[in-house]
Amino acid sequence: MPLHRQRNGRQNLANRVFFIFILSVVFAIAGPQRIVTLGPAVTNQIILAGKSSEIVGKTSYCDSSAGTKGKTVVVGSLLTLSVESIVAMRPTIVFASGLTPLAIQSQLKKLGIRVIEIDDPKSFDHLCSNFLVISRELGVVTRGDSIVAVAKKERSKLQRDLVGIQREKTFVQLGGTPLYTVIKGTLGDELISLIGGVNLFDLTKSGEVSRESVILKNPDQIFISDMGISTKDELRRWKEYPSLAAVKRNALYVVDSYAIGSPTPISFIETVRNIRRQIGFVGAK
Q1: Can you tell me the distance from the alpha carbon of 224 to that of 257, in angstroms, rounded to the nearest whole number?
Q2: Does domain 161-279 bear CATH number 3.40.50.1980?
Q3: Cβ of 269: how many Cβ atoms within 10 Å?
Q4: I need a labelling partner for 221 at 20 to 30 A (CA). Which of 72, 102, 153, 251 fits?
């Protein structure tokens, strides 16, 4: 393609984006927010804050989020986003995730759009802090404070159940080939602790492990995330090692990757309770 046509094409796109933005400024009025959310975890927190009706744009990965399915425009995937589509939604605020490209965030900010990045939580307290930021930005501080207070109270109850228990060596499988697991200092690691387990691997950087290393460490229980793999095949593969403690104890479980990967303060507590029921957890007496 001739160079002048490429330049004209880029200029036309820039003109369209600028025109849409000008319209959003001209027609913006006081009232409900127009929210674009760029990650499923952020979307779930917005819904918990009671603002699902104000979401006008989302990513394709947010489709499973209750309260948004079929009601909003998809502006791209987690990594591949359309600035033009986002601007066309005339957002008053855009919530970016930790995976939202910085270049996209920068373009939106240059157009005068308020962008709030919600990074991936490393702990339950971090998750609660993220929710409080979202609640503040959406003008529902009291609701946010109340929800976090309830969630932390429930977390305290879960922690009391753990006093004096014998912890199970726990392996959480993420992916199949290559094999990944939960690393230390993450929300997933905290979940393992709250279900009465201890992380099988003391990893702090990369979560990639070999199947052989898992077998050598001989976990008491194995949880297989259902994201992007055949859980039936993975269950069958682990059962090929009958001497494995988890296999002997029939302690092979499938867990919902969406529940683990896109939590809110409330859903995280619910996930811990659901897994405890699944494994027959018996807490401190």
Answers
A1: 9
A2: yes
A3: 21
A4: 153
